[in-house]
């Protein structure tokens, strides 16, 4: 196993572990949400957008924006993510692999 880890196969073992534990799907979904929240937050910082301005652009409340930016909150809709991406000049892409 050490040789496989050195060759870059650690991710495969981790995925297998998560699948065996029955947490692969939920862990993957949470990771995706964390990345999206981070990317939106970073885009806001880069553009100097306050939460108030971002909420205005999204036509929503600041508390709803806080839920969107909360990496733990998985209850954000694809529509909201797409609107947030557009509000910072980005595009949301979703694909099945």
Number of helices: 6
What structural category arises from helix and sheet content?
mainly alpha
CATH class: Mainly Alpha
- Look up the CATH topology: 434 Repressor (Amino-terminal Domain)
| Major sheet summary line | none
CA-CA gap between termini: 27 Å
Q: What is the quaternary state of this protein?
A: single chain
Average pLDDT metric: 87
Give the percentage of residues in beta strands: under 5%
The portion of residues assigned to helices is 55-70%
CATH architecture: Orthogonal Bundle
Q: Shape, please?
A: elongated
Q: Please give the domain count.
A: 1
- Please trace the helix and strand order, writing H or E for each element: HHHHHH
| Poorly predicted regions | none
Kindly describe this structure.
The protein is mostly helical and 97 residues long. The radius of gyration is 17 Å and the shape is elongated. The chain has one domain (2-87): 434 Repressor (Amino-terminal Domain) (Orthogonal Bundle). The two termini are 27 Å apart. The protein has helices at 2-6, 10-21, 24-47, 51-58, 62-69, 78-87. It has six helices and no strands. Helix 4 (51-58) packs across helix 5.
Chain-wise SSE layout:
Layout: H1 2-6, H2 10-21, H3 24-47, H4 51-58, H5 62-69, H6 78-87
Helix pairs in contact: 4-5
Provide a brief overview of the structure.
By secondary structure, this protein is mainly α. The protein contains 6 helices and no strands. Helix 4 crosses helix 5.
Summarize this structure as a short list of keywords or feature phrases.
97 residues; mainly alpha; 434 Repressor (Amino-terminal Domain); 69% helix
């Amino acid at each position: 196993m050490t040789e496989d880890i050195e060759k870059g196969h650690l991710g495969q073992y981790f995925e297998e572990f998560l699948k065996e534990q029955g947490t692969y799907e939920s862990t993957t979904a949470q990771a995706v949400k964390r990345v999206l929240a981070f990317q939106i937050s970073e885009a806001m910082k880069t553009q100097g957008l306050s939460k108030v301005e971002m909420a205005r652009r999204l036509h929503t409340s600041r508390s709803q924006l806080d839920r969107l930016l909360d990496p733990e909150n998985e209850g954000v809709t694809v529509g909201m993510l797409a609107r947030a991406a557009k509000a910072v000049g980005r595009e949301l892409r979703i694909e099945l692999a």
